[in-house]
Specification:
This protein is an all-alpha fold. It has 20 helices and four strands. The strands form two sheets. It has a two-stranded antiparallel ribbon.
Length: 576
């Protein structure tokens, strides 16, 4: 039964991929005539998210919008069938074993996606967020009910759209595995070129290094649930990889090979990453500026500069503006739990509560599950570093790769040996600044995997290229062996067998747990469901919150759809 369930997920992913490729091909054909299937997939995802953001402002996300996407996707396939057919034939570059490896990774992800949901944040607020989206248009002031419902991630919109039809209530089994599968389809051709010693640019090494964390996420990361970190990281790394590729063409001096249309996709994906996870904002903003700069500088004429610049701005605006509007409706703040640019709307969450959530996020990133007062100052650094140093895939390996690349690159440069011009090292600018911002804001390692691994892959590539050029021979076998050992080192750390153990006895994707609840009434008489143990609502009826606020009331007593107001800070909102 587990195999049959995984085949069901594979078929569903196939339908989703076809739909997104069709949607993306329609958009890409508006300004570019030659596009790959992967570019169409990612553009389709970005455009679909923008449509969902606009849609949910006025309507709940139901089967009708999912059916609309499918119809548009099929239309796109029919309109662009010839170019898509050519893209499919060229995708694997004539390799026989490469599709088999891709199928193997995809099948493994499908099997793992059948497992139970053990992701804590799904029960805390993710499942509730999806349920609200499927039941109502975006609800004003819902953060007054439960502050984390104001964490505005477009991943929840995707999960709501996927959780329809036969997947009703089960959409959380689909999305993270799908994004990782799409990432592998980008990485594997580059890895194959490196293995065959046919690498044509440093970008192949950049993608090959990224295969280390991708392998760990595929085997061990939790992919069932309402994760926002993994999808945001995947989108950020895909966008950075495309930007890296285009900068490699600049290094070779043939600007004609730079595809300005792909830079438009880069700008679009960085905007999408911000809507998936707010912690990407600094990294994505700076990287977006780099992509836009290239679009403007590399246009072959003034008309082309204007055309591509307008398309990049328009697509980014269509993604970010409705996302910001949803944030204001949810909490009164466009970047909640950040309190900047808050608007004086009636449903605005009290400033004291908003600050409590912001401080809670910062405190959690420093030392989880301790009061805020214990994470002030700098005394938390010792415990944080001790925990981080034990984390193999998120700290040990990227740090080791970065240091190795840095030592090799600097050694060859200072010894006066030949060294390449590396304009692609510009990607370090957003990644390093992104790491600094992350460390100051909330230094939980999972919040910055996109910046950490961009740094490791870029510096590691620099070291590899410098070594090969300085010694005038290839060290492919040695480097690949080191990367394989790194992957094994990450994989077989503590708890390596847990992803396999949770699949025992699973026959089909299980639904979310049903928590034990009690009903508590606010001063206004509003009945609210509250978990009797712990802080997880899981698949509870609406409205449910683990943080009961007696001052909570409805803006309009006729329906939950009109939202909530809180007259003061709840007792649970004390800042410790």
């Amino acid at each position: 039964m587990l195999i049959l369930s995984s085949l069901k997920i594979l078929c569903t992913w196939g339908v989703i991929a076809i739909t997104l490729i069709g949607i993306g091909s329609i958009v890409l054909q508006l300004y570019s005539k030659k596009n790959s299937l992967l570019d169409s997939f990612w553009m389709g995802l970005a455009v679909s998210v923008a449509v969902l953001e606009f849609w949910n402002i006025a309507f709940p996300v139901t089967f009708s919008i999912t059916l609309f996407f499918f119809c548009v996707g099929i239309l796109g396939l029919l309109l662009n069938r010839s170019s898509l057919r050519n893209g499919l034939s060229a995708m694997w570059q004539g390799s026989l074993w490469l599709p088999l490896i891709g199928i193997a990774f995809t099948s493994l992800l499908a099997i793992r996606s059948c497992g139970p949901c053990q992701y804590y944040d799904t029960g805390l607020y993710g499942a509730s967020s999806v349920r609200w989206i499927q039941t109502y248009p975006v609800v004003p002031g819902i953060a007054n009910l439960h502050g984390r419902l104001g964490f505005n991630s477009s991943v929840f919109l995707c999960l709501a759209a996927l959780g329809q039809g036969v997947w009703k209530g089960l959409g959380f089994h689909l999305f993270t595995g799908l994004t990782l599968t799409a990432m592998w389809f980008t990485l594997l051709p580059a890895c194959a070129r490196v293995v065959r010693r046919a690498a044509t640019s440093p970008a192949d090494w950049f993608y090959t290094i990224l295969a280390v964390p991708a392998f760990f996420w595929t085997i061990r990361s939790r992919i069932v649930g309402t994760q926002t970190d993994e999808p945001a990281t995947v989108v950020s790394l895909i966008a950075t990889g495309i930007l890296f590729e285009q900068l490699c063409q600049e290094q070779e001096g043939d600007l004609r090979k730079i595809h300005t249309s792909r830079l438009v996709l880069v700008a679009t994906l960085f905007s999408l990453a911000v809507t998936f996870k707010l912690s990407t904002v600094v990294f994505a903003l700076i990287a977006w500026c780099l992509a836009f700069r290239l679009i403007w500088l590399l246009g072959q004429c003034a008309h082309q500069q204007t055309k591509y610049s307008f398309v990049a701005l328009a697509l980014s605006t269509l993604i970010l503006v409705p996302w910001g509007a949803r944030g204001i409706i949810l909490s009164g703040y466009p970047f909640f739990p950040g309190t900047i640019f808050g608007l004086p709307v009636a449903w605005k969450i009290p400033l004291s509560a908003a600050r409590w959530y912001a401080l809670g996020v910062q405190s959690w990133g420093r030392i989880p599950d301790v009061p805020y007062r214990d994470t002030r100052g700098l005394h938390w650094l010792g415990e944080w570093f001790h925990d981080a140093l034990r984390n193999r895939p998120s700290f040990q390996m990227p740090l080791a790769i970065t240091l190795a690349g840095l030592v090799v690159g600097l050694t060859h440069r200072f010894r006066g040996k030949p060294h390449p011009a590396c304009p692609w090292l510009l990607v370090l600018f957003p990644s390093i600044i992104g790491i600094i911002f992350w460390f100051a804001a909330s230094p939980d390692l999972r919040f910055a995997q996109f910046a950490i691994w961009t740094t490791a892959a870029a510096v590691g590539t620099w070291g590899i290229v410098s070594l090969d050029l300085g010694l005038r021979r290839s060290h492919t076998s040695l480097v690949l062996a080191a990367l394989v050992l790194s992957s094994i080192w990450c994989l077989f750390s503590f708890g390596w067998n847990e992803p396999l153990l949770v699949l025992r006895g699973v026959q089909q994707p299980p639904p979310l747990p049903k928590p034990a609840l009690i009903i508590r009434n606010t001063f206004s008489g509003l009945a609210v469901y509250v978990p009797t143990g712990g802080q997880q609502c899981w698949d509870a009826p609406l409205p449910c919150t683990p943080y009961f606020d007696p001052s909570l009331r409805l803006r309009n007593t006729s329906s939950l759809r009109y939202g909530f107001i809180s007259e003061g800070r709840a007792p649970e909102f004390r800042i410790y």
